[in-house]
Specification:
The chain is mostly helical and about 50 residues long. It is about 55% helix and about 0% strand. It is globular and about 20 Å long.
Length: about 50
């Protein structure tokens, strides 16, 4: 089951993280997978 993300700031922080920015496509657009986002959310939840 996928986590429903309701906090835009969490997604924004994730998207601006260095790990995601290091992953660039040929046209320079960054991308990430649902699994990456879920892993990020799990880590954030443990920090809280």
């Amino acid at each position: 089951m996928h986590t429903v993300v309701t906090d835009a700031r969490v997604v924004q922080n994730f998207c601006s993280s260095a790990r995601v920015n290091a992953r660039l496509t040929d046209n320079g657009a960054s991308y990430f997978t649902i699994a990456d986002l879920e892993n990020h959310l799990v880590r954030r939840r443990m920090e809280w």
